[in-house]
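Thread title: Can someone regenerate the structure for this chain?

I was given the following input by a collaborator and told the matching structure tokens would be attached. They weren't. Posting the sequence so someone can regenerate them.
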Amino acid sequence: MSPDNPNPTENSQQLLDEAEALIWGLLDENIDAASTQRLEKLLANSEVRQRYVQCVELHSDLQELFNEPQQKPKSPVLGSLSDFFPPTGFPAQPGINTPPPLAE
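Best answer:
Regenerated them for you:
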């Protein structure tokens, strides 16, 4: 091919490679204003938008997989009850919640 008419497949791959580098910079919060503007221009391309969605989905999946599980916030009123009572029920108290003896 002549230099005046470059390979469109090669150009498309270069465009996607550049876009992906910028996308990961954005997702990793490591991107400057000029790169953000460049990414915005590249997002006019439908293939770049598809790659953006793929990268965001992968980023989200990886965060979910590798982040430590978040503890559910405890209720300020009843949140500590599970610290005192087993999840299967209240502790047995003689005469209050014990079943009567079986008759023979």
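Helices lie at 8-27, 33-42, 46-66, 81-84.
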